[in-house]
Amino acid sequence: MHIGTVLNVFMRDFRKQKKRITLTLVALAWGTVSIMLLLGFGEGLHQQLSINRQGMGGEIGILWPGRTTKVFKGMGKGRRTHLYMSDPAYLKSRIPLIKNIGGEFHRWGAKVQYKDKIMSEHITGITPNFEEMRNHIPQMGGRMINAADIAQKRRVFFLGFELKERLFGDQDPIGEMVSINEMPFTVIGVMAEKMQMNSYSGDDANLGAIPNTTFEVIFGDPYLDNIVYQPHDPNDMKEIEKQIFEAMGAKYKFDPTDDNALGIWDTVAGMREFNNILLGIKVFLGIIGALTLLISGVGVANIMYVSIKERTREIGIKMAVGARRSYVLAQFLLEAMFITFGGGFFGMSVSYILIEGFKRVPIESDVLDFMGRPTISLEIGLVVISILGIMGLLAGFFPALKAASVKPAESLRYE
Amino acid sequence: MQEIIRLKQVKKAYQTGEMHFEALKGINLVVNKGDYLAVVGPSGSGKSTLMNILGCLDLATSGEYRLDGELVNTLSSNQLADIRNKRIGFVFQAFNLLPYATAAENVEVPLLFAHVNSKERRKRVTELLARVGLADKMNNKPTEMSGGEMQRVAIARSLANEPEIILADEPTGNLDSKSGAAIVSMFDELHKAGKTILIITHDMSIAEHTERLVTMKDGLIESNGDLSGRRVG
Ligand SMILES: Nc1ncnc2c1ncn2[C@@H]1O[C@H](COP(=O)(O)OP(=O)(O)O)[C@@H](O)[C@H]1O
Ligand SMILES: [Mg+2]
Prior knowledge:
heterodimer; A: alpha+beta; 2 domains; six-stranded mixed β-barrel; 54% helix; elongated; B: alpha/beta; six-stranded mixed β-sheet; four-stranded antiparallel β-sheet; 34% helix; binds adenosine-5'-diphosphate; binds magnesium ion
C-alpha cells in the first residue's frame, strides 16, 4: 500500500465533506466532554474527601481502655484495664513498627476564662507529635506544644480556630493569658483551619490543648483516656494491633487474644472501605460518561454507514478507475480515526479549559469545600484516549469493510 | 495481427434471491490490437454484462477470458484493480464522474491510484483536458458542464494512464446527436492513434464508424462481421 496515495485521496475527499465531518466531530467532542467532566468530578470528589478525611489525622490508630472478657492466669473476667502515662513509651520501645505515639487526657466542662469571658470547655492533654498524627498544625505566628513544654510541665495553651474566635474574636491571642480552672496559661498557638469529617472526641476546631504532663499534674488524673499512634507503614496496622495486645497483655496481665481488653479504632481499615466507596462512585460516574461517549461513537458509526451508502457510487467509480479495495478501506478508516481523534482532542481541550476555568473561579462555598472541584489526571486522560481509540477503530472498521466490499459493476449499473 | 482479447465460452449468471438468470450464455470473441469494434443488440441482450467482464469490473461465471494472453478469471482483486487502472479505460453512459470534484480532479483520480507524483499529475491532467477540448473547463464541476462536456471529461479520465484498450458502454446514450457525433469523432481519432476500442451502442450511425460489428441477442453473439471491406469497397 502506498501511504501517500491514501493520504492524497483522503485529503481530497475530506475537503469536500467538511460539513458532515464537522458535525460528527462535534458529536464526538460532546461525548468526550461528558466523560471528562464526569471522571474529573469523581476525581475532584475523591481528592477533596480524602483531604477532609485526613483532617483528624492520616493513618492513625486510637487505643482506649476496656474490660477483660476472658479468664487469664487465675484472674477472673470483667476486670477493667487502664492506660498509664508510661504506656506510650513502653509500646514504642516494644513495637518498632510504630512511628509516633502519644497519650491523651480529656476533661469536659473545664472553666476557661479570658478577661471577663467565661466558658465551659473541653480540655485535652496531648503530646507534640499530635502535630503530625492529628494534623494539629499551628497557624503562622504561633506554635504547637513542644518537647520542652512536656518536660517542664509548662502552662501553655494551644487552641482550635473556633475556640479562638469565641474567646478572642479578631484579636491576636498569641501571648495572652487565659485561666483554666483558675490556673493561668499562656496562649502559644492556634490550629490552622481544616475540614474534618470524623473525630473521636469532638471537633478539633474547638480544641483546647495543654501538655499532657501539665494536665496530669493540675487535674490529677491517674489514667490516660486514650493513646494515639501512627505506623511507619499503614499496611502494618493489623500487626501493630496484635503486638499492642501482646505487650499490654504481658504488662497488665490479660489474655492477648481478649478483643475487649482494649478498644482500638484503626482508621486505616476505615480508609480502605472509604476508598472503595469512592472508587465505586468514580466507576459509576465513569460508566455514565463512557455510555455518553459510546452513544457519540454509535453516532459516528451510523453517519459513516449512511455516508457509505450514499457514496457507494463514488466508491464504485474509484474502483472502476483502479482503486484497490485496501485503498477504499484505508480511506474510510482514516476518516473515522480522524473524526474520533479530532473530536476527542477537541473535547479534551474544551474539558481542560472548563475545568481549569472552574478551578480559578473564586467561589466560597461549603458545598465545594465538601465536594471538591473537578480535576483531570493523567489517568483520566489515558482512559478517555483508550476508549476513543477503540471506538474509532470499531466505528470506522465495520463501515470501512462495507465500503471496501462494494462491487464496482453493481454499484455503477445503469438502466 | 496481434490478439489482445480472447473470450472462450464465457458465461455469466446473476443470482437474485431465488431467481437465477443467465445473462451471457457462452460468448466466443477475439479482439486484435487496434480493432475498432461496435457491439449492438436489443436492450437486455447482455451487452453491458459483456463489457463489464471485458473491463474487469466483474468476473465471468465460467469460461475463459484472456487479456494479452493472461487468464483474467484467476487474478486477485488487486491485480484486477491494476488492470482497470492502467490497461483499460472505461467510458460509461452515465458519465460516472465524482459529483463533488472538478473536471481536473476527476481526470486525476486514476493517476492518484497509479501513484503518479503531483507535479506529473498536474501536467498530465492539463494535457488530457486540452486533448478533449476542455482546457478552459478544468475547474468546473460536473453540475456546471453539459452532457457532452461531462463525457469528454470521462474520456480524458479513461486515457489518464494511457491504456491500450478503451471500452465505452453507450457513450452517446445520454447525449443529443450533435454532442454524440463529437464524442464519436473523438473515438475515431483515438482509433487512428492506435487504441483498441469497443463501443456498445444502440445507434447504427455510430456502428458506421467502426470496422467490426458484433450483434448480440439473448446472451449470445448473433453475428460477428468485419466491416472494413465495406469502406474500402
Ligand atoms: N446485477 C444484475 N443482477 C441481476 N440481473 C442483472 C444484473 N445485471 C444485468 N442483469 C440482467 O441481465 C440481462 C442483461 O443485462 P445487460 O447486460 O445490462 O443488457 P444490455 O446492456 O444489453 O441492455 C438483463 O436482463 C438484466 O436485467
Ligand atoms: Mg446496457
